[in-house]
Amino acid sequence: MRYPVYIIYDQQTEYVAKKICDNTYINGMVFSEHSYLTEYILTTIARKCKSEYFYVIRSVREILFPNFDFSFSPPDWDAHYIHTWNNDMCVLLFNSPLVLQDASHFGDDRLSDGKIHFKNISEKIYTYPVFDIIFLSYDEEYADVNYRALKARFPGAKRVHGVKGIFEAHKAAAELVKSDMFYVVDADAEILTDFNFSYQPHSLDRKSVHVWHSLNPVNDLEYGYGGVKLFPTKILLDYNGSPIDFTTSVSESFKVMEEISNVTKFNTDPFSAWRSGFRECAKLASKLIPNQDNSETEHRLLVWCTKGEDREFGDFAIIGAKEGAEFGKTHKDQPEQLGLINDFKWLENRFSS
Length: 353
Known about the structure:
Blueprint (H helix, E strand, L loop, with lengths): L4 E5 L4 H10 L4 E4 L7 H10 L4 E6 L23 E4 L2 E8 H6 L6 H5 L5 E4 L10 E6 L5 H11 L4 E4 L4 H11 L4 E6 L2 E3 L17 E7 L6 E2 L5 E4 H6 L15 E11 L5 H16 L8 H13 L7 H17 L4 H4 L5 H9 L1
């Protein structure tokens, strides 16, 4: 028989809880401050149950149950255990009569004391949602090669090509996807072999923009420039703010992921190398990014402007970085002028002049 299933949530995790409910038959949603599993909540659920066991799902991350029917029955001698799956506290199975007998043996107070007895089952009973992967390209020399490499490993990846404007291209990507969040891969990104787009954000981070580090092949800097990004779809679609560096401003929450996702191979020709240095250093020098660390910013500016001349097209990256830094300082309080760094035709004309 299928046992009752209840999901615990609070104000911050309600969105994810509802997503789980949309894909799983749930007997009830139970509000608890900080999603804390109290004796009172456990007793209330147990009193509702007419069955020997009931399940509790914690809305920590969005999870799907493609094959599990919540009918698992432990042997009688294991009834006093809280059963978990795959060493994870997301899904818990309780014995109703024993909870009613003394709920203090099963609540989170006992958990924090390390006095709860668990029985782990190694079977993986749930999966995570799959987020769409969008490859953004405009005129990059090796875009086709990088896209083929991405598709070879991740066949579901899609491409947005030739949309004028960085912000407009991301909007087009958001309109194309079917998932609540989606990854963006830049055209000059060579994804590392151990990066697999499997990250699942905590329910508290579902509205955050996530940015992974990338490796700069000219100056060896490692930070978010050119890294893989994970966007909340609806927030990006609804965004009407500044398009200059919207990655850091589209959401109220921005999360840096220190894992390196890719090498940003922008140094494929003189113009691409110059353009990359110019755009990035204009943003850094204008202090455009909210809450940026000034000392870290100055360090990155210095490295962009001085290191890597011996690398392929590194001299053009350095020239672009110096010109971009000067442009950013000059126009730091002029958003209309700063917006030109996303106009690739304007950049091409400046490079050629």
